[in-house]
Amino acid sequence: MEKKINQVSKSQKRDEMIKSAYDIFYKNGFHATGVDAIVDSTGISKRTLYKHFTSKEGLIIAAVNYYHQIMYGAIADYIEKSAVDKPVDKALMIFDFLAGLVDAGNLHGCFAMNAKTEYARKAAEIESACDVHTNSLIELIEKYFLEAEIKESKVLSIQIIMLFEGAILRSKGTESSLPIQLAKSAAKVICSQY
């Protein structure tokens, strides 16, 4: 019983470190955040941090995975719980979800995109973790396009995600959801061609 309690305690400590690092990385960036800042915010020692994560990059990967889990789940739930019937309209709700985040003050952009940008061609494992998030969103969008019996569903899904990612970057820079609304309008035009 004591061993099981220790495992739960270690798991909780690991989760706390990930959540804390996630918050700090999201606000300050990855290169700008040193291990000392993470240690200071969590109250754990460097030794404990490195016991759970072999490196700062390992912690970043865990934070990207955490982001993917919460964000993908939130997007999928948002779409599934909507009253929208048409599959193409459901697919494009990803823009509505994003606009809601920006309008609520989330102006840090996409955590996975931020990590991928900072570590482009520098850390393949971090890039791979980021790609899981993007590819999952492409698959989610494609699911609705397949329901709509769109033959080029994969190509269209990639085009929509490209607009989505552009909208994320532009809304981050302008601190406005207008780029998201414009991207959704462009996505509707593209979808109408299929």
UniProtKB/TrEMBL annotation:
Residue ranges of the TM segments: none
Swiss-Prot/TrEMBL keywords: DNA-binding, Transcription, Transcription regulation
DNA-binding region: 34-53
Keyword Transport: no
PROSITE patterns on file: HTH_TETR_2
Domain HTH tetR-type intervals: 11-71
Gene3D superfamilies the record matches: Tetracycline Repressor, domain 2
Pfam families xrefs: TetR_C_13_2 (PF21993), TetR_N (PF00440)
Descriptive protein name: TetR/AcrR family transcriptional regulator
Species per Swiss-Prot/TrEMBL record: Flavobacterium procerum
